[in-house]
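Attaching the record inline, Q. Sequence:
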Amino acid sequence: MKRKPKLGQNFLVDDRARHAIADALGDVSQRTLIEIGPGQGAITDILAPRCGRLIALELDRELAPALAIRFKDQPQVQIIETDVLRADFSSLIPAGETADIIGNLPYYITSDILLKLFAVGSAGLISRAVVMMQREVADRVSASPGVRDYGLLTATALMNAQVERLFDLPPSAFSPPPEVYSTVLRLHFAPRFTELGVDPEGFDRFLKQSFAQKRKTLENNLRAAGYPSPKLAALWPQSIPRQARAESLGLQAMAELYRSLSDSA
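Structure, as predicted:
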């Protein structure tokens, strides 16, 4: 099957790697799995006989029907031709249950897919995910406050999941080889909104405002977002330096500032 560069297709061909990725999900015999971008089915082949149900979301108009034919005798496997960013996860997951996610995320929309998964996870629909992505994006997802890679994607990830870095894969693990290394992460979804005393929608919006311009201080970003200077001066917690940038602060400090500004509204 000819690769379509516009879809970001780099097919996994390393046999040890595809087994390691599938194994990272653990026991899935009673689980519903959602695979993002199965491609040529390298990981689908391994997971199909292991899981309770497997839903594969494939955008490619040639690969999706080919996969449907290939797995037609395995009723637990469902191939859906769709864009993952438009997929309604709530309709795919049985009521009262959670699903696990696995996938080789297209490089050009990795951040968008992750943000969608975090939103679905915060709704209590996802338990865990094993996802592969460009190493530079994985660096951002797994960064710590105070380092250059820490940003909105990092804060959103840590707000919604425990991030575990598993292993890197060289370009030679794929066909055709990409120009970058890839990293496999395991995410254990455990939203912290209740723990930190913040509402999901409001705090997500606050984080986006806080990280809007990385070169600006947190206070300047919030001022640009519409927070009046007198309010910021009056309610700014003493534990947070006035010249701090958002990437220098952990989630607890950000939540403290959010609660202070919200309580006075």
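The longest strand covers residues 126-134. Residues 195-263 form a domain with the Helicase, Ruva Protein; domain 3 fold (CATH 1.10.8.100).

More tomorrow.
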